[in-house]
Amino acid sequence: MNTHSRRSFLAAALSAPAFLSAAQKQTDARIEELKFSYEDYLYRTPIKFGGNVVDRVTLLNVNVTLRSRAGKVAKGFGSMPLGNVWGFPSKVHNYNETLEAMKALTVKLNRIIGGYKEYGHPLDVGHALLPAYLKAAEEVTREQRLKEPFPKLCTLVTASPFDAALHDGFGKLHGRSAYQILSSEFVSHDLAHYLTPAFKGEYLDRYVTAKPKPAMPLYHLVGAVDPLTAADITKKIGDGMPETLPEWIEYSGLDHLKIKLNGEDLNWDVNRVLAVERVAGETQKKRKIARWVTSLDFNEKAPSAEYLIGVLRKVKEASATAYERIQYVEQPTKRDLKADRANVMHEAAKLKPVVIDESLTSLDMLDLAREMGYSGAALKACKGQGEALLMGAAVQKYKMFLCVQDLTCPGASLIHSAGLAAHIPTVAAIECNSRQYVPAANKDWVARFPGVFDVRNGRVNTALLDKAGLSAVA
Prior knowledge:
Blueprint: H1 3-15, E1 29-49, E2 52-68, E3 73-81, H2 84-87, H3 95-114, H4 122-143, H5 152-173, E4 216-222, H6 245-252, E5 256-260, H7 266-287, E6 293-297, H8 305-318, H9 320-325, E7 326-330, H10 346-351, E8 354-356, H11 363-371, E9 376-379, H12 385-397, E10 401-404, H13 411-423, E11 430-431, H14 434-437, E12 459-460
Parallel strand pairs: 4-5, 4-11, 5-6, 6-7, 7-8, 8-9, 9-10
Antiparallel strand pairs: 1-2, 2-3, 4-12
Helix pairs in contact: 1-4, 3-4, 3-5, 4-5, 6-7, 7-8
């Protein structure tokens, strides 16, 4: 289904709510009540990505009450950081302006979703209402007099806790994990309805496991302004938690490191990779750890594919070992692939898997990325549970490299993100950045999920993520 016909189809679905009646299931549910709230936290230490330094987060929390056709009631909960710096990077609007725009959209989404009274599966609710979300974002652009359009990625981020609450509540309504409600038993349409005819007769249970992996490696973030050694510290935090890379490696038993790069100075980027190799290598040698890996994340700041290739080749020239450790490269250049068509990744992808992250906002964008030579994709819970699962199915179908990243997700949003990674078979590791940057938001969760929010053996205890719904809230 092309973009135009998909939009026309969805618009028709919105204007005719009875459209799904021919495919109704007894397992379907409808929204009885919907409400949202916010939580604000300051970061323990700033994180730099995409040329910006972030030191705070606002969580959007959503509560929903669902009712089945038989009258059974269940409550669902979803939470996600309003990652405005990531979802709405702007050269003309400051942090508060983009955050307020997301909050304005939140009010509209609460009204749109809360007003949708048809019975259905959460996949169908999100699929049917997406055009209304995008229209609401356009209204925010006008009403807030934004000088830049409200981005689609940011719309997905704002809608994601609502979507999470629906999937969570639907799972609880049926006493099952949110990853066990994706078969034809619960979903009225096969994947061809949401993706392309190539998925005819298939459902998400083909691409998602019913049970989580029991444990997964933790990918620890090495931010561009994070101190590697004590000599790099200008002012100690002094809260008893690790402050240098060796301290973190020892504390959490790390063997997976994600290195943030600036993309503005090739020599700096190369030297950063080599510095991590040297500092981490010394610590791993003491720990008698022979195999450990890295990934590189430019957050779209690399000016070209040639720049990326230059970084990789110079790293290899300086240290073949450091080069071999690199598992993949994440979103090296601009997220707007349509405006950057000449920046193809065919040659770079011959060296290492090159994945899209910010660019992945639809199947159309995944197809364009493939055409441009990208060999993988990063899923994020902050783009919506339904959207992440559908894109995960497509990436697996296309036999591309697949990973799951988080948005420095704390609390319930980390459980959501980790659960997504743990139930997709080809994903090998998990990010849990909030334990480094905003542990205050995890305070009430550590004891409830041992080995998830406080990792000591390099592995996240994902065996716990098998409860009803999204596993976060009973």
